[in-house]
Write a structure and sequence with these properties.
- This protein is α+β, with helices and mostly antiparallel strands and 189 residues long.
- The protein folds into two domains: 2-154, Thiol Ester Dehydrase, Chain A, CATH 3.10.129; 157-189.
- It has five helices and six strands, in the order H-E-H-H-E-E-E-E-E-H-H.
- Strands 1, 2, 3, 4, 5 and 6 form a six-stranded antiparallel sheet that branches.
- The longest helix is centred in the C-terminal third of the chain and has 28 residues, at 158-185.
- The relative contact order is 0.15.
């Protein structure tokens, strides 16, 4: 339930926070609440992904991408996520989630969410996502142009290119597995 309150609070207060350039960073301040914790007494690894969802929505609203999506009747879809945990967050600690757009390719947009406390990065969540309109996914370059940004992505870090390739390889392996399963389950003529 706490996440609904966080989401509603973010939506009600996002207009007080400054606009963000599409290639800039947003900062969303949060506090660790008891229902964010696992049995070890620190923020649950799955909760980081959910907190990143709230921060991503804040970034999307503040950089103008939500307006572009709304105009095109497009919904945001997360395709893959990767998380790196460095330090734990304990009950009632204050922290920030710093969100930024890393870049894009012909299909995917890559965003990073850094969990920061006292200047130290405690964890990072990276996602690749897209906006899906009624007639299919919108190219990230369409968003870039609508937001007044060069439609050519900034250079992607090598680790991100490799991660993207591994996500594509996993998707292909799953499609192949499903194809084989479907063939096995099909009745013989």
């Amino acid at each position: 339930m706490n996440l609904w309150f966080r989401l509603i609070w973010m939506l009600l207060t996002h207009f007080r926070r400054p606009r963000v350039a599409p290639l800039g960073s947003s900062v969303l301040k949060m506090t660790v609440l008891p229902n964010d914790l696992d049995f070890n007494g620190h923020v649950n690894n799955g909760r980081y992904l959910t907190l990143a969802d709230v921060a991503r929505m804040d970034f999307t609203l503040r950089c103008g991408a939500a307006r572009v999506a709304w105009q095109r009747r497009a919904l945001p879809i997360v395709g893959d996520a990767c998380a790196k945990f460095r330090r734990d967050l304990k009950p009632f600690q204050r922290f920030e989630v710093r969100s930024r757009l890393l870049g894009w390719d012909e299909k995917w947009t890559f965003l990073e969410h850094r969990f920061v406390r006292h200047g130290r990065v405690l964890g990072v969540v990276v996602i690749r996502g897209l906006f899906k309109a009624p007639d299919g996914p919108l190219a990230p370059s369409v968003f870039a142009e609508a937001l007044g940004v060069d439609p050519v992505s900034p250079p992607l870090p090598e680790w991100l290119v490799e991660w993207n390739a591994s996500c594509e390889a996993m998707s292909q392996a799953l499609r192949e597995e499903e194809r084989l399963d479907d063939a096995t389950l099909s009745p013989s003529p």
